[in-house]
Design goal:
Blueprint lengths: L2 H13 L11 E7 L6 H20 L8 E7 L4 H13 L5 E3 L4 H14 L3 E3 L14 E3 L4 H15 L3 E6 L3 H13 L6 E7 L8 H8 L5 E5 L4 H11 L6 E3 L6 H7 L7 E5 L14 H15 L4 H20 L4 H9 L4 E2 L4 E2 L14 E7 L2 E4 L5
Parallel strand pairs: 1-2, 1-3, 3-4, 4-5, 6-7, 6-8, 8-9
Antiparallel strand pairs: 10-13, 11-12, 13-14
Helix pairs in contact: 2-11, 3-4, 5-6, 8-9, 11-12
């Protein structure tokens, strides 16, 4: 193309209000999230975050002069739908990489497909099985259930509590968390004296909790997500069970506090620093990143959650890898995701390696407690 024709085309683009970068082939980011269904309070902020970041990036001219296009499907938390949509993303939409899914079940269902097709996947779900053993094309940004179990046990050790009761839901995340709690208990000198379960759609869990009340447990741990943990919390209060109550990082949002009401007071759980961003010391390298994301998100959508933060980390790591790869060649992008180092995100500081497709240390978790209806750093609690 000669210079005169190039200038004429550029002028036409400007006259029609188009950014020249938007004339380039888009970078296609696929996503499958649980925006409706039991895990909607996770998936909804995830999708809103992805859309916010894509809009911001495109307003700055895109990546490598190319616009970013988000192609999303709502799984409703159904693993069969997750697999169907991921096949569509790969074969029909021809996405360059995928950020999702919301839940462990959705993610585990699609791993064989992305591995077979060679498409980079950055999961937002929690179970350690997603990345252990390492899968070539699969990464994750949410803290693992094993990390959550270890963080809870560390806190129990500090409090001198050794006998615990477990209660867990029937989802993939819940069951995986229970297994990690059981595996790690001997390492931390913890004795599990009761082990109960419930269905994630149950509306009353007092029968199981009554059994726990009859045990000699010194603390109670509930591993789950969705509305059920709030029901557990309310039922604990209704039964007058006076034990320290721990929840998992699967409920690290204002939604849990709202659902549990006054019964949430004193509940502890490990969470990303995002929920206590303002309470971090000023020299914490995460603080400016957390406050920037929090302020931008809340200006558009209201209270932030750690789950939206996972989506932020996932898409930012993905786009940085595309930029370093110089394009969307899937193998090169995969390699660059794996080389992610010193990336300051909302979930922590990521340092991935061929042996670690998450790259977060236990320090990335903060132990928080509900105090007067808000999340509070345990270090700052009375």
């Amino acid at each position: 193309m000669n210079g005169g024709l190039r200038h004429i085309l550029l002028a036409l683009l400007l006259l029609t209000g188009l950014n020249p970068a938007h004339a380039a082939e888009p970078i296609k980011i696929g996503s499958f999230l649980s925006v409706t269904g039991p895990a909607s309070f996770l998936g909804d902020p995830e999708l809103k975050t992805l859309q916010m970041v894509v809009d911001e990036v495109n307003a700055r001219g895109g990546v490598l002069g190319r616009p970013v296009q988000l192609i999303h499907y709502d799984t409703g938390g159904n693993a069969s739908d997750a697999l169907r949509y991921v096949k569509r993303l790969i074969r029909r939409d021809r996405v360059d990489l995928i950020v999702g899914g919301t839940t462990t079940g959705d993610t585990l269902a699609v791993i064989p497909e992305v591995e077979r097709e060679g498409v980079p996947l950055i999961s937002l779900a929690g179970a350690i099985e997603i990345i252990e053993p390492v899968k070539k094309w699969v990464f994750k940004v949410a803290h693992t259930d094993r990390m959550a179990a270890a963080k809870i046990y560390e806190d129990l050790n500090r409090r001198g509590l050794t006998r615990v009761a477990l209660i867990t839901g029937d989802g993939g995340f819940d069951k995986s968390g229970r297994e990690q709690l059981r595996q790690l208990a001997p390492e931390y000198g913890i004795q599990i004296v009761a082990d109960e379960s419930y269905g994630n759609r149950d509306t009353d869990i007092t029968t199981q909790l009554t059994k726990i009340r009859a045990s000699d447990a010194q603390a109670l741990i509930n591993f789950g997500f969705g509305q059920a943990p709030a029901i557990v919390t309310r039922n604990v209060a209704q039964l007058g069970i006076d034990l320290p109550l721990y929840q998992s990082h699967g409920v690290a949002s204002q939604t849990f506090i709202d659902l549990a009401g006054p019964a949430a007071e004193g509940v502890r759980l490990p969470a990303a620093a995002l929920v206590v961003a303002e309470q971090l010391p000023d020299d914490d390298p995460q603080k400016p990143v957390l406050l920037s994301y929090k302020n931008r998100y809340e200006a558009q959508h209201g209270p932030v959650s750690t789950f939206g933060g996972h989506a932020y980390d996932g898409i930012m790591i993905a786009l940085a890898a595309v930029e370093r790869a110089g394009g969307t060649d899937k193998a090169k992008v995969r390699d660059e995701i794996e080389k992610t180092q010193s990336f300051v995100g909302t979930s922590g500081i990521f340092n991935m390696t061929p042996e670690d497709h998450m790259g977060l240390s236990l320090d990335a978790f903060k132990m928080v407690e509900v105090r007067e209806g808000v999340w509070t750093l345990v270090e700052n609690a009375d």
